[in-house]
């Protein structure tokens, strides 16, 4: 279980990005983190694994406190947290397989990582993950030869190669088209469900969050203003999080995109639309 207690982040400029955020995420739960730009979503994710240093508060994973750890202990604990980035963060000149194996760098010695001579079990694990994300045939391709959706799949496989206890996902669909976005979200949900892996997904697409997440947390100005199920995310709640917006039109547009995709798939299968 992940536990946050009064997590606060204030920058040197005096801007407060997070204000006493407290929440817990049990094993296997998928949490969508929504809110307007500047609400503190990315800061919250980065404070959990201390890519951004919290000003105060506590972060506990499986009962072990991460705040206050020294550099060496922190490196060891970060192996327990998989991270998937909006811009993929792949090494472009390396192959897909090498990028996935980089998820094992926290477990091997310097010379193993330098020479990239990973243990056989790590290589077998990487192949299994590539098969699971649908990229087995792309193992030897350079990362810069892949599409955006394929790169995100590599990022998922790399994070899972760590065998993490928690998955942090920062805007996984921001650079993807609607159809690919749904495919990536569906893959994340399926994999996390299969292994009971908890995940926090920072996502800007509200209908997508409602479709795939089990729980939604809404941030506004660094504070939690909503914590509930997708069904509880009413228009009045969305207005409290984001301000005035035509939420009915947004949902209709999302449903029309889903319907058009389903019709296209039926036509490809030779079925009536």
Automatic annotation (TrEMBL):
Molecular function GO terms recorded: ABC-type phosphonate transporter activity; ATP binding; ATP hydrolysis activity
All copies of domain ABC transporter, residue ranges: 2-246
One matching Pfam family: ABC_tran
Protein origin, superkingdom: Bacteria
Coiled-coil annotated spans: none
UniProt keyword list: ATP-binding, Cell membrane, Membrane, Nucleotide-binding, Plasmid, Translocase, Transport
Gene Ontology CC, one term: membrane
Gene3D superfamilies attached to this UniProt entry: P-loop containing nucleotide triphosphate hydrolases
Full protein name: ABC transporter domain-containing protein
């Amino acid at each position: 279980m992940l536990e946050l207690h009064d997590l606060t982040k204030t920058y040197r400029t005096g801007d407060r990005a997070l204000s006493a955020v407290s929440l817990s995420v049990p094993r296997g739960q998928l949490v969508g983190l929504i809110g307007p730009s500047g609400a503190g979503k990315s800061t919250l994710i980065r404070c959990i694994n201390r890519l951004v240093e919290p000003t105060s508060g506590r972060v506990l994973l499986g009962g072990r406190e991460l705040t206050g750890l020294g550099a060496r202990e922190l490196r060891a604990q970060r192996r327990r947290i998989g991270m998937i980035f909006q811009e993929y963060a792949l090494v472009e000149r390396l192959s897909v397989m090498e990028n996935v194996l980089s998820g094992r760098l926290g477990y091997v010695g310097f010379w193993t990582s330098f020479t990239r001579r990973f243990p056989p079990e790590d290589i077998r694990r990487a192949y299994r993950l590539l098969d699971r994300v649908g990229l087995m045939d792309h193992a030897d391709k350079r990362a810069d030869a892949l599409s955006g959706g394929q790169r995100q799949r590599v990022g998922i496989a790399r994070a899972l190669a760590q065998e993490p206890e928690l998955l942090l996902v920062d805007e996984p669909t921001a650079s993807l088209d609607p159809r690919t976005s749904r495919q990536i979200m569906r893959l994340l949900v399926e994999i996390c469900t299969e292994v009971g892996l908890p995940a926090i997904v920072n996502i800007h697409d509200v209908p997508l969050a409602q479709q795939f997440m089990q729980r939604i947390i809404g941030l506004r100005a660094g504070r939690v203003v909503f914590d509930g199920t997708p069904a509880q995310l009413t228009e009045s709640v969305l207005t409290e999080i984001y301000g005035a917006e035509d939420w009915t039109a947004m949902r209709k547009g999302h449903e029309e995109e889903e319907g058009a995709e389903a019709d296209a798939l039926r036509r490809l299968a030779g079925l009536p639309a």
